[in-house]
Amino acid sequence: MAWDALWLNLSAATMLPGGAPYGLVADAALGIEGDRIAWIGPRRDLPGPPQALAHRVQDGGGFVLTPGLIDCHTHLVYGGNRAREFEMRLEGASYEAIARAGGGILSTVRATRELDEDALVAASLPRLDALLRDGVTTVEIKSGYGLETATELRQLRAARRLGALRPVDVRTSFLGAHAVPPEFAGRPDEYVALLCAEMLPRVAAEGLADAVDGFCERIAFTPAQIARLFATARRLGLPVKLHAEQLSDQGGAALAAECGALSADHLEYLSEHGAATMAHAGTVAVLLPGAFYVLRERQAPPVDRLRRLGVPIALASDCNPGSSPVCSLLTILNMGCTLFRLTPEEALAGVTRNAARALGLADRGVLAAGLRADAVLWRVAHPAELAYAIGLCPRGVTICAGGIVP
Length: 406
Ligand code: DI6
Ligand code: FE
What we know:
This protein is α/β, with parallel strands linked by helices. It has helices at about 50-55, 85-90, 95-100, 105-115, 115-135, 150-165, 190-205, 225-235, 250-260, 270-280, 290-295, 305-310, 330-340, 345-350, 355-360, 385-390; strands at about 5-15, 25-35, 35-40, 55-60, 65, 70, 135-140, 170-175, 210-215, 240-245, 265, 285, 315, 375-380, 395-400, 405. The chain has two domains: about 5-65 and about 365-405, Roll (Urease, subunit C, domain 1); about 70-360, TIM Barrel, CATH 3.20.20.
């Protein structure tokens, strides 16, 4: 019995907690069998001579190996763009004011409803390819630009198709509760009733979503409306997560945590009570510095509070046409450090170990035997370099589910 591949001469940032920084193992070896990690550890502990252990032996050049990167929060399937709104914000309009005037998310809803599935896939592929260039091997993609059954289903199908077209594992979230659609203007409760009675059950029946998400905010849905949505999700056996406390403190994070949410995301206005409830429930804090940067927010999420309470922190691109037209997870690592004062190690844990947890995936996010063989070999000598440089992609080789990505 031999492994398919054995990599030698690695500096392995396993991201396993509790030991060396980054879980670093010097002069490491990695054995791969099928889509799994068969073995990882110091080379001197290998159970035999390399040539006898694997069909293929490869040299890692002494470079850094990390888990494959996980972008656990994106809205990358959509039509059109919002460059005009970018200009309007530079002229002084606020994100909230543009949304209230029928622009914002609703402008992307209009553009997305016009595209068929092929066109949605074609529009979204360049964004996915940009993320893959940065070593992403798992990506979460939300719906939420349809706000009607047919278009929401089409977005989710397009997302699943992207995962078949590229070497990446796509996880989907149903975000029908992203905004109140124009057809229901002034009648949000009726829209939430439709979400619960028709849209979400249909999505669940077709197996198109791995989780249910919502936007709890003054310009979106109240905690009471989100609670109804989450009750339906629970009945259908789907995990939940929530956009919470992005622009104001609505108490969304505590609600999400009380519902056992995988994550609460954004969190600029997170209260002590919200953070404590998250800590108690084990809900991951997904921070989105791209939106903070693009909207020129002033209040950063309470990172010290999250640290003190032991809330796991993830980082994601939030790739979307309005608040975060960002298609680079390495840039997000830098923003997490520069804007939110995360350490490079915390930032890297945020796109590996904690991002996996935010998606409820126990089979990835660290380098350990038995887990999915998702890894990236970077042409760097130390993992801090990944968060440090901007616009330089030092990716050498990506391994996704055991296969080398061309
Ligand atoms: N918060 C955000 O930052 C994105 N969605 C959300 O709930 C923005 C989406 C957009 O502006 O299109
Ligand atoms: Fe988002």
